[in-house]
Write a structure and sequence with these properties.
398 residues, 15 helices, single chain
Length: 398
């Protein structure tokens, strides 16, 4: 028995755990990453603030999350994910409560600072780390299942928040979300997520494997970090600017909205295929396929042809869906479960910083050089990531 296995619960109901974390991932993503898409406009109109300043709250939250993610990962390695995820639900509640009473931009950005801490301790990276710590090598299937459920965050969150905002206003919508995290998120994390045996006692710190790997493993780790960071930059940029880029290329507004609706279902379909067909393949192949399919999709967007845009959206969404899974499974397979939380936290930092910076950089290119140039630059970056993926091994590191 390994030192890690000696600290695992005797039995973990992985299906129950995945469903529970899937529910809380929908709540966490819906009330952070997807919140500005619905509430930014009403907040800007009500408070008289520039829309860019309101949307910038999410970028600020991502910067905070990037700073805090490695700390969260190390803590999950040492003590398990339960207390970290409970803390995340509480921080989500605190941040949304402050958001609901924000009367100036200082309080608004302070609220997003709390939400940034919550994102670092409660979004996919923390959930993946929790699954890796509890399930060890068996976590790959659980990670795929988690992303299948979590992929419905926008599907559930956007209409729910829009209905609440039109009914009771944006401040009261934030208060409803506070209640949801307190009454649903906290109990689920506390009651369903097991704790590590002997966590925090005696030899528990020995479970954590530091990031000081051998020379070849360190090179592999930073190659993976660079690849995932480039992908995060591109995905964040396109998530904000893709629809406006297609409009600038001449697609009708109705067509653009229809194209955008293809991306979500394509992500889910790709994850189902990954779970059912490709789960026995090494995740390096999943990364290569995901990057290649995304690249084809971005290149097809450049044409500005309406029917090709639908094909492009399906390919881009499928690639994005596959890469979300590989982001959690590849570090687990390459480096093993020991120290998995710390490595996920270290990988999350540059990715979150890239997600914060990407939309601003892409907005500058889009406004100054046009949609075609922006999409070409995105395609070049994904091509670089594809070249990097070809250097990844297809078996675990020694």
């Amino acid at each position: 028995m390994t030192r890690l296995e000696s600290h695992l619960p005797v039995s973990v109901n992985s299906v129950r755990l995945v469903v529970a974390l899937g529910i809380t991932q929908i709540l966490a993503w819906g009330s952070t990453f997807y919140l500005p898409a619905v509430l930014a406009g009403p907040i800007a109109r009500d408070m008289g603030w520039p829309l860019s300043s309101v949307v910038g709250g999410l970028s600020w939250g991502m910067l905070v999350a990037g700073i805090c993610s490695p700390i969260a990962g190390r803590f999950i390695d040492r003590r398990g994910g339960r207390s970290v995820l409970v803390f995340s639900s509480l921080m989500l509640s605190a941040g949304l409560l402050m958001l609901s009473v924000a009367s100036n931009l200082w309080l608004y950005y302070l609220a997003w600072s709390l939400l940034g801490v919550a994102m670092a301790t409660g979004l996919y990276d923390a959930a993946f780390s929790t699954l890796g710590t509890l399930l060890g090598e068996r976590a790959r299937g659980a990670i795929t299942g988690l992303t299948l459920i979590g992929g419905f965050a926008s599907t559930v969150g956007w209409p729910a928040m829009a209905a609440l905002e039109s009914w009771i206003g944006w401040r009261e919508t934030c208060l409803v979300l506070v209640a949801v995290h307190v009454l649903i998120g906290v109990p689920i994390h506390w009651l369903v997520v097991p704790k590590l045996l002997d966590a925090g006692r005696g030899s528990a710190p020995e479970v954590q494997v530091p990031l000081t790997l051998g020379r070849s493993a360190r090179r592999l780790f930073w190659l993976l970090a660079g690849l995932l960071t480039v992908i995060a930059f591109v995905m964040a940029s396109l998530s904000v600017h893709l629809l406006s880029s297609l409009q600038q290329l001449g697609l009708p507004a109705v067509t653009v909205l229809a194209v955008g609706m293809v991306i979500g279902p394509a992500q889910v379909v790709a994850r189902v295929l990954e779970f059912s067909i490709a789960r026995h393949l090494h995740p390096t192949w999943s990364v290569r396929v995901g990057v290649l399919v995304s690249l084809f999709g971005i290149c097809l967007f450049i044409s500005g042809v309406p029917w090709l845009a639908f094909v492009a959206a399906a390919l881009y969404g499928a690639g994005n869906g596959i890469l979300t899974i590989a982001r959690g499974t590849l570090p687990l397979v390459l480096f093993g479960p020991q120290g998995y939380g710390a490595r996920m936290g270290a990988l999350a930092r540059p990715m979150l910083l890239a997600q914060a910076a990407g939309p601003f950089a892409a907005a500058f290119v889009l406004s100054s050089q046009g949609a075609s140039t922006m999409l070409v630059l995105m395609a070049i970056m994904v091509s670089v990531a594809l070249c990097g993926s070809l250097r990844l091994p297809t078996r675990p590191s020694a």
